[in-house]
Amino acid sequence: MTRRQILAWGLHSVRATITHAVGDVLELWLKDGQLLDELAQVEVLAAQAGVVVQRVPWKTLERLTEGAVHQGVVIRRRLPAQMDIDDYVCRVLNAEFHPLLLILDEIQDPQNFGACLRVADGAGADAVLVGRKNNAPITGTVAKAASGALDSVPIIAVSNLARALDKLRIAGLWLVGAVHDAPTTVFDCDFRMPLGLIVGSEKKGLRKLTRSKCDHLVSIPMSGRIPSLNVATATAVMLFEARRQSRDSTN
Questions:
Q1: Residue among 165, 150, 171, 5 nearest 75 (CA)
Q2: What is the set of domains in the chain, with CATH numbers?
Q3: What pLDDT digit, counting tens, does each position of 80-129 carry?
Q4: What is the pairing mode between strands 127-131 and 174-178?
Q5: How far is 26 from 78, CA to CA, in rounded Å?
Q6: pLDDT tens profile 24-74
Q7: Phi, psi of 153 (to 5 degrees)
Q8: What count of other Cβ atoms lies within 10 Å of the Cβ of residue 119?
Q9: Across 57-142, where does the E strand assignment appear?
């Protein structure tokens, strides 16, 4: 199956792709003229990896990225191969440690999607599960916000999220959804189990059907005047609390 191609940009994103997925790099453009240290390092890294570097005017990079903050480097690349939900279920069934899966329920902002991938990498999540419908597609904006995590965290894309959640529950994962009105807080919930953490869309949160599939619903206690967190920040709170509990239980 032919993998979709995208343009991606930004120092961290491009450097990570060359380092971890150089076979997916199809073209690389660097700004012409003198290069600052970080861009010069990208040029050296590309040469070492056998990637041909094209030096082009800054305006060309702006045209390629439609005015995005590209930091002087753009690549055309294939998207990483996605993980199949059934392969992940087999991994869960054979795991010698508690799996930790991040599940995104219709995250539509590409910046948030990319930031969630970056958080998943930082917290050591096994994978990120998304629905193909009504989730932001993977674009250069997502890749830049992910800051390299596009090539380090497996993505599972499914046509029917509710059916995928059923498979995960049968496989032994406990599904915990983040909602603003749950009486149980994220810090009071026991995460020391095979876990799928679910966060919902920026405007509506978890859909009703998704909520019904959860074993537990938790909230993040807020002490200020703003009633909720950005979805990527909420994802960080959830994932790192799960990792903290897992780490403490083994000490």
A1: 5
A2: 5-78 (3.30.1330.30), 85-250 (3.40.1280.10)
A3: 999 999 999 999 988 888 899 999 999 999 999 999 999 999 999 999 99
A4: unpaired
A5: 7
A6: 999 999 999 988 889 999 999 999 999 999 999 999 999 999 999 999 999
A7: -115, 120
A8: 24
A9: 73-78, 100-105, 127-131
